[in-house]
Amino acid sequence: MAERIAVLTGAGISTDSGIPHYRGPSGVWTRDPELARLFTRKHFVNDAEARRRFWRTLDLHAGARPNAAHRALAGLEKAAAVRILTQNVDGLHQKAGSTPRKVLELHGSMATTSCLRCHAGYATADVLARGEDDPSCPACGGVLQPSIVLFGQYLDADVLSLAGNIARASEVFVAIGSSLTVDPAARLCAVAAECGARLIIVNRDPTPYDDLADEVVREPIGEAVPALCARLAAA
Hints:
alpha/beta, 6-stranded parallel β-sheet, 10 helices, 9 strands, elongated
């Protein structure tokens, strides 16, 4: 059995929890390219209407609960050293029981919000509870942004460096529900494979890394991931 398993997860793992995926043939941004504009740093900072629409999209995450795939990955920790590298900001891996310190959130987290002016931090749930369509910082009146990486912002260099180290050290690297079209996260597949890891891709649609993979799984994620985790645990 592989002792070191790294798992890269994208939006597809959370669709069974009611959070839609963004890319791909039927993705939110594919169907409504204008909506992607809300997730750029430039428009978020400078356009109050963009911020209002952005905050309304947080309803996509409200009440979401972990699904069978999240729970299966959490359970795999009992059999192997598992590190999760997630492109998602929904916190569902931790809610499913994955050890928080073993979950690396590449694009940040919706759980917290900070002021772009004074950098004061708040729980996003508390900000939403105020019921404001464009909430501002109660300390200085500055613009509030959830602690996520928007288009036009760079991933945290330390987080990305750690993700690379995890990929290089893995014996099995599994990419689940990611279009694998957004770098630098997508390149982790190549990093792992080049260092000898077995690459497994679980995704409904083709990805740019399918030809590099040892195994490609097209079955629904809610069924495929629990079966894969059971197989990895028993190997």
